[in-house]
Amino acid sequence: MLTLGLSGDVARTVVLEAAMPSMVTAGALTIAHGLAPRLAAALVGCGLLLGLLALPLWARAPVG
User: Which long-range contacts (CB under 8 A, 24 or more apart) does 4-9 make?
Assistant: First the structure.
């Protein structure tokens, strides 16, 4: 994040927000095309739950 000139809470927020839509979008596309919709929904749900559990650890990690 140093290459963008970001540090601290701003850097954490950018990484968190950038990571979230990709998994949800992939799951939505998978479900829309009928490619194992239950598996896609389960993976998105598990990913969100794990992300919520990891969030406190991420918030305490030192950044730039």
Answer: 6/64, 7/63, 7/64, 8/63, 8/64
Average pLDDT, the chain: 79
Contact 30, 37 (CB under 8 A): yes
User: Largest Cα–Cα distance in the chain?
Assistant: 43
CA–CA dist 7, 44 (Å, integer): 29
> When comparing pLDDT for 23 and 37, which is higher?
37
pTM higher than 0.70: no
- Domain locations in the chain as residue ranges: 24-59
- Who's near 40: CB < 8 A, 6+ residues apart? 26, 27, 30, 31
Structure tokens that stand for 42 in this block: 């389960």
